[in-house]
Write a structure and sequence with these properties.
Length: 303
């Protein structure tokens, strides 16, 4: 479907991006359609990529993943029932997995929630932007107030697809794979070497010599993935010890960089951001992403 849509729109190449569980779909797209990447400067960006509970060690998801698969398949209706009936009764402002009512665990207890903290200003948000209704979107207080309505707007929509995604993310039932039947891989650490082979083969056939640039933006405080999940995901991209690759990694670094003959991987922990609001322009990550997309396809380059 992706190639057909791009052909219909007359778009020859793309720089894919994803948030959270969308990374699963993005990774499969890279394997299936590497020719859709720019032939000279291919670029991909992942925001807070999802990591299985076995790696993240997040208690909530470890427990949830042990629930019967049919129950996980009703996640959407369960979440909506909790948000509509239980949450108002106990005076909580938020949703089943919202930033205002997330579970307490060691990764977040020492940090104040970025949703309730003062919103930092990026160059883009300090201009005093206004929407069509005259709201001053550069005002941190107004932005914070608008965030309170995210949950109500979310649950006003049809959430049927959320249940299928929950089963996919938690791998319940076990018969639900992350990969497509034509390109088998079980987890990210299995995906990375497979991607390298696909890229090298695609370059050989197309007479390219590309290096895929991959940016990953992690939230400083992430109730969905956690610090262990973030570290595990980064280390999946650590190249093998060979003469054709080099690596620089430290689990305490805010920025990590790994270099391989077929890709250049860079990750960054975005200060003050959480999983849900990582792409908020106030934190600057989305601005960096869009600029790097723009830089990846210079206007003077013909493709």
């Amino acid at each position: 479907m992706v190639p057909r849509l791009l052909k219909h729109l007359s778009i020859p190449y793309v720089s894919p991006a994803s948030h959270s569980g969308g990374s699963i779909y993005l990774l499969n797209t890279l394997l299936a359609y590497p020719h859709l990447l720019h032939p000279h400067q291919p670029y991909v960006c992942l925001f807070a990529p999802w990591v299985r509970p076995v790696h993240s060690k997040i208690t909530l998801w470890q427990v949830t993943s042990q629930l019967p698969a049919p129950l996980i398949g009703k996640f959407a209706s369960l979440a909506k029932a909790v948000n509509n009936n239980i949450v108002p009764l106990i005076g909580m402002s938020g949703s089943f997995v919202s930033t205002n009512s997330r579970p307490i665990h060691p990764a977040t207890t020492a940090r104040a929630s970025s949703a309730s903290a003062e919103v930092p200003r990026s160059p883009a948000s300090s201009v005093g932007l206004q929407d069509s209704h005259g709201l001053a979107l550069g005002n941190p207080e107004i932005v914070k107030e608008l965030r309170k309505h995210i949950t109500s707007l979310l649950f006003a929509e049809n959430l049927d697809g959320v249940s299928a995604d929950a089963q996919l993310f938690l791998n319940r039932p076990r018969a639900v794979p992350w990969c497509s039947p034509s390109m088998l891989w079980s987890d990210v650490d299995h995906f990375v070497p497979l991607l390298s082979k696909i890229l090298e083969e695609d370059d050989r056939l197309a007479l390219h010599n590309r290096v895929l640039n991959i940016d990953t933006f992690h939230a400083e405080s992430d109730h969905m993935v956690g610090e262990k999940g973030r570290q595990w995901f980064d280390e999946c991209w650590l190249p093998g010890r060979s003469s054709t690759s080099s690596a620089r990694s430290n689990s305490f670094e805010a920025v990590k960089q790994f270099t391989h003959r077929s890709y250049y991987y860079q990750s960054e922990a975005v200060k003050g951001a959480d999983h849900d609001l990582l792409m908020d322009p106030a934190f600057g990550a989305s601005e960096k992403w869009l600029q790097r997309v723009r830089d990846a396809v210079p206007r003077h380059v013909e493709v």
